[in-house]
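sorry for the late reply, my laptop died twice this morning and i had to redo everyting from scratch. anyway the thing you sent over, i finally got around to it. pasting the sequence first so we're on the same page, its 436 residues, then the predicted structure underneath. double check i copied it right bc i was rushing
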Amino acid sequence: MNTAHINTDNFNSECFCISLDDQALARSMAEGLGNPALLDLVRDRLPSMFSARPVVLAPSQIQRMARLITALESVVALPAYREEVLSRSDPIARHPTRAQSVFMGYDFHVHAGHQDPGGFGLIEVNTNAGGALLNAMLARAQRACCPEIENWVPTAAQADALEASFVAMFRNEWRLCQASRPLQTVAIVDTLPAQQYLYPEFLLFQNLFQRHGIKAFIADPSQLVWRDQRLWCDGVAIDLVYNRLTDFALTEPAHAHVREAYLQDAVVLTPHPQAHALLADKRNLALLCHAPTLQAMGVPADTQAVLLEGIPQTEVVTPDNAERFWAQRKGYFFKPFAGYGGKAAYRGDKLTHRVWDEIKAGGYIAQAWVAPGERTISAGESGQVLKFDVRNYVYGGHVQSLAARLYQGQTTNFRTPGGGFAPVYVGGEGFLSPAI
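ok and here's the structure:
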């Protein structure tokens, strides 16, 4: 393939020159897990986690996503925006913290080429976005079938740099809040972690932390104890909690010890409730794409333009507009305010009357439908075509790395044969450097 004249549309529909090297992935995962015996767990748990085919985007599309992220975070920093959002959030979101929150996920629908200039939209923002370290493993396992493509494949040094940037990010979270001594202990916390789909990633993080001299635990909240003004796990005082819980405001009784440690500033919690309230609550998208609101908040005109062009029309569903949205439902996607992972999210043309009754009762946004990109993953007349979205992993307003997620159905599901996480490459410019 002549990469000097590559067309991203053609690549995503016709090129199969780069694929996943299963043996290299196995070696990478075994090394990352620190225990080759755990590789069977990964294979059983994640059969559709990694796609064999990468996605290629144009440099202009990468830049457009980055501009929108910068514009959005500049609005989030405004006092008027923060007051508007925090006034309707759980009180814990007002607790001050210097932590910036690790692994913010900005998810986009991006058509792979320029044939549909309208095919672009920020679909949602997530705290504790999973998969970043899994994608670092994936970067080590790409295989090219011809010399022309070889320089697109990420090097081991680039993968090493990405992993090192993740450790530096956690250390920076600690330094921002507790600069008096180095970070010593981390707890990776989720409900029944061994039963979580992404449990193998928890194991990878545990090993990564320990290789960098940080003692790491994987813990259910029940294993954490608030005592003597410290949070403890198995008799060890915890400095930082890598929060993978989906109880974003820590309101459940099982999370009381984590909540108290956070409110007493006895532990650095990342991601934290304020980040979720300011960035990931789906209602925020309705503010960020509403021109009168942006103008009233004092958002500069050029920033407004970036947001209005890149965020699909979004509104909160209310009794006053429910009839209109039902009539126009085929053009919308409906999501719960605090939704994650595609749970309880519905494409309008698939709605039943029963589900619509739940939506119009409250707690949902309606977002104008933006079609996802498409990637053909197999050759021939019957070649399989999957949808994809693009996730930007962001820390402190800067994009650390990108990954595509290939799938069938209404939302990403990691259940589609041939689907899963896929690397993102920049057409004609080689591999997208994973580290800043």
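The chain has two domains: 3-312+370-431, 313-369.
thats about all i looked at so far, will dig more tmrw
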